[in-house]
Amino acid sequence: MRKKSFKITFELEEGYADPAPEHSLNFAEEVIKEWMEARILNKRPIVTGLLQNGSLFYPVKSEQGNTKVRIARSAIYFGELSAPDDMLRKKPEIKNTLESLALTIKNKLNQQTVYIIYKKENWHV
Question: Which residues contact 33 (CB under 8 A, 6 or more apart)?
Answer without folding.
Answer: none
